[in-house]
TrEMBL record, chain A:
The keyword Transmembrane helix applies. The chain crosses the membrane at residues 20-40, 52-72, 93-120, 126-147, 159-181, 201-220. Keywords: Membrane, Transmembrane, Transmembrane helix. This is ABC transporter permease subunit. Pfam families: ABC2_membrane_2.
UniProtKB/TrEMBL annotation, chain B:
This is ABC transporter ATP-binding protein. It comes from Nocardioides baculatus. It holds the Pfam family ABC_tran. Keywords: ATP-binding, Nucleotide-binding, Transport. GO terms for molecular function: ATP binding. Residues 4-230 form the ABC transporter domain. It comes from the Bacteria. SMART domains: AAA. InterPro entries: AAA+_ATPase (IPR003593), ABC_transporter-like_ATP-bd (IPR003439), ABC_transporter-like_CS (IPR017871), P-loop_NTPase (IPR027417). Coiled coil: none annotated. Belongs to the ABC transporter superfamily.
Length: 233, 303
């Protein structure tokens, strides 16, 4: 199913754009900020900000940038027809592109969260947070890939989901946690370390993450199967 | 040998009809799809290439539906009008990626062979964003041909290509047609289509307006009634004389000139100077009043 040529092109698209530096800026800022707070106060105070900052801001923003870089521009300008006019499974294209976006999200999102958590001290809770971040990063990248395959305004739509639904409404209403990717990640991390909150139930968090990931990638592939080229006229 | 068939295919976007009940059978050889801008050529091409579902009717290649059929691309090569956005690749890398996507067993060899065929071996090591329009066009054609498809679809392939490169591209497409491949290209320029295509399909306003070899299309276009404006020393006398001729369909006096509608352009042009001299009328000006291609197309549609 995985197509190495598509994955290679997606990687080149990701690395070859200026956005890539923006992608690197988020983890640098996160680690820098956590390091600074640790140095000025202590590890416990810095720990307080890691899940909030990492899960609801850095991770989804990195995932948005990665997912929209591997698919967005090609769908926008229609040059994806060069890839689609080939006897290549559309689901294979979606999976290959998703894997590249996922790798970028894990490296520039989940890993820095782990590093930031390590700076604050305890290793157990850092590992827990990392596992949760891997799950949430996986789910985020699949969701944002699906959004990139549907709309030309993928970045805006994804940002609205993250900032309005997950951050704003998620802070106001605890029920949103049941439908929030970052909260599922937090719940999974809670299973490994009690220092994290318990917003939802564990089987639900695992199941929902899995379903969103699989359906997201499948849906992106299905949209590519029906990709329509509209002329200027 | 492949046949691309449209059977009463229509496509509408909301309440705008882009393609209206078009039936075509495109066989081996070079076929030109001629029509003014906005006639629905790109929409037709997209339907034929499997990148648009017909709203009604069917589009098939050798009996197989084209829409949502990934396997069809083993036989179709598509050269979209859209620009390449893979500027960060070299020409060779781009063509090679296309060969790899087709899983050709000898991808490297196929890449070099097709680069040679479009005469792009020398610049192939340069990045795509350094290419001229004609070079990009040739690389796009190479990418579409690398798997030796039996059908090649090209959307406005000569747009923005300089005359020398255009000749080169035409030779290439002609060769492909002679090899028995089904080559279809769209254009809004009659002369371009005439020089290359044996068979021409004309679309206007989303409708199939005419079909035939270039001679038939040319006759349709030149034998249509043509409107001329004539200024002379005695418009009324000249009008009376012209009305008696078989080639003239209508004459009317309008201000300081004479509107003449002509059926047979050839004999009218031959007769006019003689008639004027014979009746002592001096011609000041003779100008066609509707020579634009759009009026030609409009005539074909109304016919």
């Amino acid at each position: 199913m995985i197509n190495t040529t598509i994955a290679k092109l997606a990687l080149q698209a990701l690395l070859g754009r200026r956005r890539f530096y923006l992608l690197l800026a988020f983890p640098v800022l996160l680690i820098g900020l956590v390091g600074l707070v640790t140095a000025l106060t202590d590890g416990e105070a810095a720990w307080e900000i890691v899940p909030g900052l990492g899960y609801t801001l850095v991770l989804p923003l990195v995932a948005i940038l990665a997912a929209s870089s591997v698919l967005g521009p090609e769908v926008d300008d229609g040059s994806i027809v060069y890839l689609l006019s080939k006897p290549v499974s559309r689901y294979g294209i979606a999976i290959s592109k998703w894997l590249v976006a996922l790798a970028a999200t894990l490296v520039a999102g989940s890993l820095p969260i782990f590093v930031a958590a390590l700076i604050t001290g305890d290793t157990t809770r850092a590992v827990a947070l990392f596992v949760g971040a891997v799950v949430a990063g996986t789910t985020y990248s699949a969701l944002f890939l699906a959004i990139s395959a549907v709309t030309r305004h993928a970045v805006i739509a994804s940002l609205m989901f993250v900032l309005i639904w997950e951050s704003l409404l998620g802070n106001l209403f605890t029920g949103v946690a049941w439908l929030s990717i970052s909260q599922w990640g937090v719940r999974i991390a809670h299973a490994l370390s009690d220092e994290l909150p318990d917003p939802a139930n564990l089987p639900w968090a695992i199941g929902a993450s899995l379903v969103v990931t699989v359906v997201g990638v499948w849906f992106a592939g299905d949209r590519l199967r029906s990709f329509s080229l509209r002329g200027e006229d | 040998m492949s046949n691309l068939v449209l059977d009463s295919a229509s496509r509408w976007f909301g309440n705008v009809v882009a393609v209206n009940d078009v039936s075509l059978n495109i066989g081996p050889g070079v076929t030109g799809l001629l029509g003014p801008n906005g006639a629905g050529k790109t929409t037709l091409m997209a339907m034929m290439a499997g990148f648009l579902a017909p709203s009604a009717g069917h589009v098939t290649l050798d009996g197989m539906p084209v829409w949502r059929n990934t396997e069809i691309y083993r036989q179709i090569g598509l050269v979209p009008e859209r620009e390449l956005s893979f500027g960060y690749l070299t020409g060779r890398q781009f063509v090679r990626a296309n060969a790899d996507l087709h899983r050709l067993p000898d991808a490297a060899e196929a890449t070099e062979r097709i680069l040679a065929e479009v005469d792009m071996v020398e610049p192939a090591a340069r990045r795509l964003d350094t290419y001229s329009k004609g070079m990009r066009q040739r690389v796009k054609i190479a990418a579409a041909l690398v798997h030796q498809p039996s059908v090649l679809l090209l959307d406005e392939p000569f747009n923005g290509v300089d005359p020398r490169q255009r000749m080169h591209l035409m030779d290439l497409l002609r060769r492909l047609g002679d090899d028995g491949r089904t080559v279809l290209f769209s254009s809004h320029i009659l002369e371009e289509v005439e020089r290359l295509a044996r068979h021409i399909e004309v679309v206007v306003s989303g409708r199939h307006a005419a079909s035939g070899d270039f001679g038939a299309i040319r006759r349709l276009m030149t034998d249509r009634p043509v409107q001329y404006a004539v200024q002379s020393s005695d418009n009324r006398a000249l009008g009376a004389v012209l009305m008696a001729r078989a080639s003239v369909r209508a004459v009317s006096l309008r201000g300081d000139h004479l509107d003449v509608q002509v059926d047979d352009l050839g004999s009218f042009a031959v007769e006019l100077p003689g008639l004027a001299r014979q009746h002592d009328v001096t011609l000041f000006e003779l100008s066609p009043s509707d020579e634009s291609l759009e009026s030609v197309f409009a005539y074909l549609v109304a016919r």
